[in-house]
Amino acid sequence: MTYCLLLLSVVAVTAAVPVPRALTRAKWPEREPVVALWVWQCLVATVLLCCLTALALGAAAVFGTVRAQLFAPAPPAVTAAYDLSHASPWTTVLTMLLACGAAWTTAVLGRELVEARRRRARARAHLRDRAPDLPAGLPEGRGPLLVLEEEYPDAWWMPGSPPQLIVTTGALRRLTDHQLDAVLTHERGHARARHDWLLHLSAALAAGFPRVPLFAHFCEQTHRLVELSADDTASRRCGHLTTALALIELNQHRGVLSCSSSHRLLGERVDRLLEPPPRLGRRHRALTTAAASLVPLVPLLITFAPGLTALP
After folding, report:
1. Which are the contacts of 190, defined by CB distance < 8 A and separation ≥ 6?
2. Span 198-239, pLDDT tens digits
3. Up-side HSE of residue 227: CA atoms within 13 Å toward CB?
4. What's the rounded Cα separation, in Å, for the pair 224 and 33?
5. Are 40 and 269 within 8 A, CB to CB?
6. What gap in Å lies between CA 179 and CA 135, rounded to an integer?
7. Are 153 and 250 in contact (CB under 8 A)?
8. pLDDT of 102-117, one tens digit each?
9. Inter-helix orientation angle 297-310/33-62, to 10°
10. Preceding amide of 162 cis, omega within 30
């Protein structure tokens, strides 16, 4: 059992520190943002699974009740292979730290979900106040598209029940039909991929564990990659040039081409659309996705290895 805990710790530290730093320096995520998002999710899942399985093994070694419940259906040889008869002091300390980490992770995720619901409720109340009244005879319920009277061009997708796509009259006046189609396709791309859940997860982990490089990079890269992914969705339907022009027109009043850090991503997105990078081949993309999908299985293989070797 000691070797399992050590291996799980090594895998977790490797996935949490050097791998994300190397991934942020790579160039291929810009070409394949969807694959990059999947790789980041697999890394996060690997770290969380390492901590969860280490917590389960440590609790089984420290607490006899947990050991009896966890290994109740297992043959005696399997229980003996894990060597859970005694727990060293460092195992007890590690188990308590992991238990505190699990409780804190649950708390920060719950807090993020509650805060997201509150922000969404406030935004919907604000939209109800700003939205024009419907003429008499029309249904009172808001449809998936809501037009707001606003001088500045803007468009965004608000998740929820029901989800809503909001467009201002400034965007309708400034954008051409093709550019407006690109903007709406971009926002629908966010909705179909459920990017809001990824953003909530990354924000919660980064806020709860600010000193863990993986979670900090995961939050930063998620905000960047979801926009690149939605841009690709729009460009495949409406073309790269139309999507770039729509992005410029929609954000011109915000200084889309300025060099400030807050607008750097907008400039990067425009440059990427005007000069699309070469994409990975299908075989390379499939191999990368398959390799990333296998990474979260490593903690499970380490955990079940003693039990598998003990089976006749």
Report:
1. 157, 196, 226, 230
2. 999 999 999 999 989 999 999 999 999 999 999 999 999 999
3. 16
4. 9
5. no
6. 29
7. yes
8. 999 999 999 999 998 8
9. 40
10. yes
Q: Are the beta carbons of 250 and 154 closer than 8 angstroms?
A: yes
The single-letter code of the amino acid at 29 is P
pLDDT exceeds cutoff 70 at 28: yes
What is the distance between the alpha carbons of residues 140 and 133, in angstroms, rounded to a whole number?
Answer: 9
Nearest CA to 228 among 200, 281, 265, 283?
265
Q: Residue 279: name the closest of 236, 250, 242, 249 by CA.
A: 236
- What's at 85, amino acid-wise? S
pTM for the structure as a whole: 0.86
Angle, vertex CA 298, rays to CA 88 and CA 307, nearest 5: 55
Distance CA 68, CA 74 (A): 10
**Residue 296 to residue 53: CA distance in whole angstroms:** 12
Per the DSSP assignment, residues forming a β-bridge with 109 are none
